[in-house]
Amino acid sequence: MSTYAPVSSNGGGGAAEPQRPSSQIRSSSSTNTNRYSASSFFTYPVSRTVSGLLRRISTEPSNNLKAQMPPGLQPNTSGVPGLYTPPRRHASPFQPPPLTPLSLEGWKESTRERSRLLSRQLAEEIRLLIPPRLQLVETWKLAYSLEQDGVSLATLYKNCEELRGKRGGYVLVVRDGGGGIFGAYLSDPPHPDPHFYGTGECFLWRAHVLPGLPPLSSLPPPPSADTTNAQRMTTIVQPKHHLSPPGSNAPSNGGSGASTPERIRFKAFPYSGVNDYMIFCEHGFLSIGGGDGHYGLWLDDNLENGISSSCPTFGNEPLSDEGQKFDVLGVELWFIG
């Protein structure tokens, strides 16, 4: 009886491939699995970390992350799309220390109190509107006074020539024939020039002294009071005072001293931005503000006549109660620096 060899499944005439035991197959597959799991144990955390960083950089913060941020640090994106709006800031509760009281220097002892135009109370009002760097200056110096230096615009220019090149500001004070006080703050010293000059820090101003409050003793008694033995009382209206402090209370140097505070109504007209006609001076006149054929403030070479009209540079009203044209009774120029 003959035996037949098993035939290969590939149909060829070669010998058949010997079959491996199933235990050997399981051992080899487990070896490969262990090799792949060991390599993935080290590479998977690295790839996960890199992909997480890329995803965090390329995407916007989630709503949960924004909700965890303080309200003051969240950017305001409610405006134009694509335009970043910085977060809303809140004012600091800390306030700067109060300014040191001003001291006015430059008057001569022979100068009468009635001829001094700028009072300390008025200077403090102007001080609040000048640039912050000059608000710290504690002493204002008189550069020109019509009472002390004479009636001449050329003298005013000459006195300012010595101050050119110094960083500071200038306060022009004018008194008209009716006793009104007004003027301007200038960023540059007045000097003849063929062009306009000055910065947007310039402004015009005017001031009025309000009538003082009567003392309580001069007030009539209330209706419920017993007026059987009351004597007759007559109220006499006192004349209007000028802006200078009273001579009996004001010190001669304008520095320190006790005086009754004046109730001043102060009004300023800052730069409007319509044009750049701040200061324009020639040998024959001095002008501040202009446009449309009008000057905000204009003084002639003898400092006797002046003009004040509404001008586009400052959008001001006429500074003098006498009208657009007025008589000049006093002029002062103060240097701050």
Automatic annotation (TrEMBL):
InterPro entries: TLDc_dom. It is found in: Mitochondrion. GO terms for cellular component: mitochondrion; nucleus. Residues 22-38, 244-253 have a biased composition (Low complexity). Pfam families: TLD. Residues 116-337 form the TLDc domain. Residues 1-38, 239-259 are annotated as: Disordered. GO terms for biological process: response to oxidative stress. Keywords: Mitochondrion. The keyword Mitochondrion applies. PANTHER family: MUSTARD, ISOFORM V, NUCLEOLAR PROTEIN 7/ESTROGEN RECEPTOR COACTIVATOR-RELATED. Belongs to the OXR1 family. May be involved in protection from oxidative damage. This is Oxidation resistance protein 1. It comes from Macrophomina phaseolina (strain MS6) (Charcoal rot fungus). The lineage of its organism: Eukaryota, Fungi, Dikarya, Ascomycota, Pezizomycotina.
